[in-house]
């Protein structure tokens, strides 16, 4: 079916339901980063892929709001359709609600699906539309009516994470959560984010490629733990493990009704960002306590067992990358053609050689030359381009292992780098090491760390438009909160957190540079001024030195780099063959200032 | 009357009104930093002075919540009274609302004065008490009933700021505000903060010592500007200037009634932090648009005229400090006794020599030796101590001039400094200059800048517990938003903003060090990565070099300091006599690494 046909069908349903404007996005009931096909409603309606985009349809107009990362992709997707592209990153462009307020008439009705919209967004729309004397309906899933071949919810089997990897039993975790609930004064706590359930009940899923968290909810009270999941996903082993821990298995779709049946005096924890509007309405009769998500805070602080396993995962990850690099240069020097896509497949194959590897932790960014400057470049058969022995090559990739989630970015020269490439690269490395080698006070926020990382780039008149780093889950999502190293994050860096540091420098149409290591927050010292923390480096993957302009790099960073490379040779060599070892030794040769 | 007698009277009024717990704080209807005596209800009731403290009285208990800055002061004030000190900064100590929820019974009633409580605080209390099935009343001013000799509202005469200082006429400012109101989609805008009215209508007041903003409100619509003020404060000149600009003078107390009479369809701008609960209730029938305060954003960006005048004010301010220092050292070397208080008076007298000086911009912090380590030390006759030729002396002071508000901190040695003092001092200076000399990207937040400033201190195992800097008003409040350089401020630094940079290092019982300059955000460069900003230094007051340990300071900072001191000699000498010039020349001698 063509986009315009779908729009026409939607309009017909809107007319029947008395809806004057309908909002369609790609969102699932859990506010997950990766969404199963079933919930990709905007993508189905408009044909536009990507993580950001919202379609608005009225009786005589329709538009798709997206940010500058996706302008090109959206333009291609919308060609031939009546959907207009609204460039949401541009100055002066109205937001979707401003557009609605300016273009709809008093008493007209706006519809959206409250089952897939988080409470915070829904509240904001309802309030704004109400102020403009517009009506709102959130109980309609009009896309479901017209999407005849809509995919079913996925049924991927889940698997148990052994206590020897998790470092804490399900029983112990439940007990910790119940204690935190008491401190927060709440009696019921719905784990709405799927990774919360995975952490609490020590399992992972296979519903969505590159996302280890299956569709499920958990409701914890002092007496019960109800786990809402499609029973088809449970192996007998998983079932008995859950039952032994006192967990009751319930049907995924029962959650709404069971929430509605909670006693009205129940004090239930609500996080407006992480509960759908529909489920928030289901507990409207209870005493809602708006608070931080308990499990989000607990799982961000990794235990010793998790850190031990992650360290091993990162060594294997780096060995895989070295194997890949050896193959890449050898192939190209032998005249064998390599493309971004074939390189991506090879890199995954190198990771898959290691036991415990499950899948990529996110779609690899294989940015050769100008493609490296596209921040969210995702190679596919259409965008695929040859890799040559000329420009520089940015590779941002990671693996989801049973023993940890990895995320590594390196930028390598494929030919002789230009002076500008060397300067860009060296300033990025300088920034990365400024943060990696920092000592900082307890209670330091993500924004403070972000500023420190950018300092060297700013001094050289450069900057990058993405965040500096993010938390990483243990065998869970590669982007995990609450910490976030960005200019507006007031979250504090806590001991035991695992984060990335990944500054970059991008020149549109020319090249992109990013260097990313993962780090573990550890104690540095304690004195009369309080506690001080530092980062323990976890990534041991060579940082190319042909791209370094030594005069820009501080002396202590050059020393650090030479020691780092010696350590890498020691750690990775056992996993490599002779050819790979030779490549690594050359790549890790010391440099002088 | 003794505190316990006042508490007894309050309990009697509480009983008559059916109130089980009553909350008393020092707050006025504008949420001002400096509060006139009339609104110092907590201070009157408990005897405890200071900017932070809240009393809770129940039928059989009363407590005063305050933070660690005020523990000692509160203990002294509460001695002999039944009020218990609640150490709010300590871990595990309940907040006032948690205490209430734990100690009151269902259906009991909590009272507070909604006229002096901001909407955000009131909403939070009402919501929390409601969740605990407690009732709330906000319409009672019980203190007013029992405080028989309560001071009247001040009647300080206001004065006009000439356009040649303001740099923009009242008419032009009103027109700018109306344009911003259109963009924000609001039809009415109550200027609830008193400094908003001062800026808009180019006047200052004399209601409160060290605070240039008198009690008043302004209500702006597209048709009218109503200025609510006690008419006794208006000179004929001021009256005619306002009338010529189309401003209607109304009685201060009429604001509530007039807000109640606004048309229900009026879209009124509300900022929950800056409107009292009572006035928010008065416009409850209108369409409330919660948004940023328009004038707060406008006045933070200083115009060229303001900056030009402020630069002159800061030169005069520095000359006054040099005169003071010359007097201080001469007096002590002559054997004349000097105390913190007498020094404070002398410093003010030195500033008052300059035309346009009105009053201190805040109570001077004169911290000799251990007193310098008390972050909010305020010298008075009780705390006064002699200044000797031994320890180091932290002086944080400023003046409110017609042509600008100043804020300068310097730390000077009175004898031979210890190595630790030199190291502390040098690291603080390093931190201050790291930020002052920074180049940073547009959209950089206060938290990013804060992190950069602390970096050198952290590296040396030191830290300080206050913010790094704040905005400064033009002849207005010395602490002015929206920008704030602190670990949790996500406000962006804009071109034209005036801020302080004031890192410190404090050793309890020993000494305190702080060095503070004022800076102006200006453009540095623009390229394909965007705009870059830097700080223009505005403070030209010598930075003592006897306290510097040169091996800690980067070479470029030593060079900067030597140039800075040469510039200071050039700028300040014309204002100084021979003796002062000689002192300055010695103080500004170059140093080597």
Summed up:
2 copies of one chain form a homodimer. With 593 residues, chain A is α+β, with helices and mostly antiparallel strands. Chain A is 36% helix and 21% strand.
Explain what this protein looks like in three dimensions.
The structure is a homodimer of 593-residue chains. The N and C termini of chain A lie far apart (62 Å). In chain A, strands 4-3-2-1-5-6 form a six-stranded mixed beta sheet, sandwiched between helices. A six-stranded mixed beta sheet of chain A has the order 12-11-10-8-13-14. Chain A has 19 helices and 30 strands. Chain A is of the alpha+beta class and 593 residues long. Chain A has three domains: 3-146, 3-Layer(aba) Sandwich (Creatine Amidinohydrolase, Chain A, domain 1); 159-298, Creatinase/prolidase N-terminal domain (Creatine Amidinohydrolase, Chain A, domain 1), CATH 3.40.350; 304-585, Creatine Amidinohydrolase, CATH 3.90.230. At the A-B interface, β23 and α17 of A face β23 and α17 of B.
């Amino acid at each position: 079916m063509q986009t315009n046909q779908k729009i026409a069908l939607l309009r017909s349903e809107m007319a029947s339901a008395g809806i004057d404007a309908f909002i369609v996005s790609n969102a699932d009931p859990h506010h997950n980063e990766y969404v199963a096909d079933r919930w990709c409603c905007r993508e189905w309606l408009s044909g536009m892929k990507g993580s950001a985009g919202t379609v608005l349809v009225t009786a005589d107009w329709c538009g798709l709001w997206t940010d500058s990362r996706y302008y090109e992709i959206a333009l291609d997707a919308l060609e031939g359709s009546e959907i207009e592209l609204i460039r949401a990153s541009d100055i002066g462009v109205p937001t979707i609600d401003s557009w609605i307020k300016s273009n709809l008439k008093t008493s007209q009705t706006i519809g959206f699906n409250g089952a897939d919209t988080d409470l915070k967004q829904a509240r904001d729309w309802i309030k704004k539309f109400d102020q403009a004397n517009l009506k709102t309906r959130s109980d309609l899933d009009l896309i479901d009516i017209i999407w005849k071949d809509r995919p079913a919810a996925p049924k991927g089997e889940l698997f148990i994470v052994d206590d020897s990897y998790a470092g804490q039993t399900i029983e112990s975790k439940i007990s910790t959560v119940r204690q935190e609930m008491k401190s927060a004064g709440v009696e019921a706590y719905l784990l709405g984010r799927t990774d919360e359930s995975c952490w609490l009940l020590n399992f992972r899923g296979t519903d969505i490629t590159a996302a280890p968290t299956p569709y499920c909810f958990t409701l914890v009270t002092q007496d019960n733990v109800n786990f809402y999941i499609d029973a088809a996903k449970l192996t007998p082993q998983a079932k008995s493990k859950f039952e032994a821990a006192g967990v009751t298995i319930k049907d995924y779709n029962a959650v709404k009704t069971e929430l509605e049946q909670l006693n009205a005096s129940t004090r239930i924890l609500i996080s407006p960002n992480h509960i759908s509007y529909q489920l928030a309405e289901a507990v409207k009769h209870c005493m809602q306590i708006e608070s931080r998500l308990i499990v989000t805070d607990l799982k961000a602080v990794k235990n010793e067992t998790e850190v031990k396993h992650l360290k091993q995962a990162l060594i294997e990850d780096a060995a895989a990358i070295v194997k890949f690099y050896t193959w890449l240069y050898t192939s190209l020097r032998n005249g064998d053609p390599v493309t971004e896509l074939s390189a991506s497949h090879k890199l995954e194959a190198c990771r898959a050689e290691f036991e415990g590897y499950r899948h990529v932790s996110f779609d690899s960014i294989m940015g050769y030359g100008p493609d490296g400057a596209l921040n969210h470049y995702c190679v596919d058969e259409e965008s695929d381009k040859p890799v040559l022995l000329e420009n520089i090559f940015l590779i941002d990739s990671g693996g989801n292992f049973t023993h940890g989630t990895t995320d590594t970015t390196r930028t390598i020269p494929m030919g002789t780098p230009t002076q500008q490439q060397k300067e860009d690269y060296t300033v990025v490395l300088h920034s990365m090491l400024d943060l990696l080698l920092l000592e900082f006070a307890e209670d330091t926020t993500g924004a403070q760390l972000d500023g420190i990382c950018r300092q060297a780039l700013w001094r050289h008149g450069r900057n990058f438009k993405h965040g500096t780093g993010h938390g990483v889950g243990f065998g869970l999502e590669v982007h995990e909160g609450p910490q976030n190293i960005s200019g507006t994050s007031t979250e504090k860096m806590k001991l035991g957190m695992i984060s990335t540091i990944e500054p970059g420098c991008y020149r549109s149409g020319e090249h992109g540079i990013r260097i990313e290591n993962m780090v573990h927050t550890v104690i540095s010292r304690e004195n009369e001024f309080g506690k001080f923390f530092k980062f323990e480096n976890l990534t041991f993957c060579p940082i190319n030195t042909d791209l370094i302009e030594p005069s820009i790099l501080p002396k202590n960073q050059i020393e650090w780099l030479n020691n780092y490379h010696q350590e890498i040779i020691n750690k990775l060599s056992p996993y490599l063959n002779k050819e790979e070892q030779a490549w690594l030794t050359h790549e890790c040769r010391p440099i002088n200032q």
